[in-house]
Write a structure and sequence with these properties.
about 150 residues, four-stranded antiparallel β-sheet, 2 helices, elongated
């Protein structure tokens, strides 16, 4: 990426010129997946073509929406984890239904802001089959399927 401003531009120390917002499409740290090219020197030209080093400053987004990562593992036979994130502390309703719509689990618990996990075991569900889980936080509902195998 290159920006050319022939007439120049005055900036204060540590002033941000632009922000690049990226979204991960696979698991991992973006800071480990992205880097400045070593082929072309990352630099900024200041007065009289004097150069300064250019770097990347990483900021972690702290505010999250209610989201569910899914069931791991899925399919499963002994235990599985359903991981979800909350933007702030709150009550979460958790339900599991079998393929006929029969309620197998129904709980309401308080969870903290950030990442949370609900662990299920075979004894919680019973027999093998396809199940639908539902997490409700505020006015948002997220559901998913899981398969319990023998």
């Amino acid at each position: 990426m290159s920006i050319a401003i022939p007439e120049g531009m005055t900036m204060e120390r540590n002033e941000v010129m632009y922000i690049i917002e990226v979204e991960a499409i696979r698991s991992g740290r973006l800071s480990e997946m992205m880097q400045l090219s070593e082929t072309v020197n990352p630099e900024i030209y200041v007065t009289d073509l004097e150069t300064r080093a250019l770097g990347i400053s990483w900021r972690v987004k702290t505010e999250t929406d209610f989201s569910v990562t899914g069931t791991t593992p899925n399919p499963w036979n002994t235990n599985t984890n359903i991981t979800f994130e909350l933007p702030q502390d709150g009550m979460v309703s958790f339900k599991v239904k079998d393929y006929t719509g029969r309620k197998v689990i129904s709980t309401i618990d308080q969870y903290g802001a950030g990442k949370n996990t609900i662990q299920l075991s075979r004894s919680d569900i019973g027999h093998s089959g396809v199940y639908v889980y539902e997490l409700r936080y505020g006015d948002k509902v997220i559901s998913g399927k899981m398969i319990l195998i023998d």
